[in-house]
Amino acid sequence: MQTPVSFEFYPPKTDEQRSQLDRTAEKLKTYSPEYVSCTFGAGGSTLSFTSETVRHLKQEHGFEAVPHISCVGGSREEIRELLKLYRAIGCKRLVALRGDLPSGMGHPGDLRYASELIEFIRAEHGSHFHIEVGAYPEMHPQAEDAMVDLKHFKAKIDAGADGAITQYFYNPDAYFHFIDAVRRLGVQVPIVPGIMPISNFSQLRRFSEACGAEIPRWLGKRMQAFGDDAEGIREFGADVVARLCERLVAGGAPSLHFYTLNLAKPTQAVLSRLG
Ligand code: FAD
Known about the structure:
This protein is α/β, with parallel strands linked by helices. It contains ten helices and eight strands. The protein has helices spanning about 15-30, 45-60, 75-90, 115-125, 145-160, 170-185, 200-210, 215-225, 230-250, 265-275, and strands at about 5-10, 35-40, 65-70, 95, 130-135, 165-170, 190-195, 255-260. Pathway: One-carbon metabolism; tetrahydrofolate interconversion; Amino-acid biosynthesis; L-methionine biosynthesis via de novo pathway. This is Methylenetetrahydrofolate reductase.
């Protein structure tokens, strides 16, 4: 497969997690990713972990490392400082998101939506950063309806985003319909499917409930039937996700972005099936 790939990591907080990320980064390096990205924690609580991880991935592993940056709960001044820091580290690319406030946290911040964050980044830094935004083929869980959500997505592109990465999904039609719908609205930027390899089904079910990603009934039932057979789940999951990737690429997906959860094996299992 000649399709470019990128990998997403979360910022490790302990020495053990840091060693795990190093091992994973070494293994996934062989796939020559276009870039690797690093998430932030809800409400900005782990911002320094993100910047440290980005620096580490650049300097120690030689990746193009891309921070996720959010506006929720932050002031313009805090975001301004963070952008300066990322520019000083040498970042040329960002994944810009609204983020979510942890429950019980009060102040929403100076910028309410990702579109406002993108306007802010463009106003402060012109075209220095290549900006990716989030896209939701199965609709953002808080959106009033799918059409309104599509218009809000378009607002992020109109504000100056260069591309988008989707929330993960297991039904390729959700992606293809999303692409058709946003192209009809005049959105031309590349929209890269986010791919979640399957390794731990109960964890996946929890994530999916939180982020509004659907696990198709047939897939859930097959997974449940494996019971405690972790190896069976991994093998079957890798087959399913590899087939999904094949269909996405055949249908025009420009590249694939893997949510690695800092583990190499589940992503490798998919990529090895794709050759
Ligand atoms: P927005 O695009 O701002 O949209 C959020 C909601 O507001 C949507 O329902 C939208 O329809 C609505 N909306 C937008 N504009 C308006 C408007 N003008 N008026 C009314 N409603 C509006 N979370 C993390 O905590 N850390 C991460 O690192 C992280 N990385 C992610 C990476 C990707 C690729 C994706 C897809 C998601 C990621 N998330 C992450 C999750 C993300 O933070 C949440 O989904 C969050 O709820 C929305 O962020 P957003 O940038 O998509 O928001």
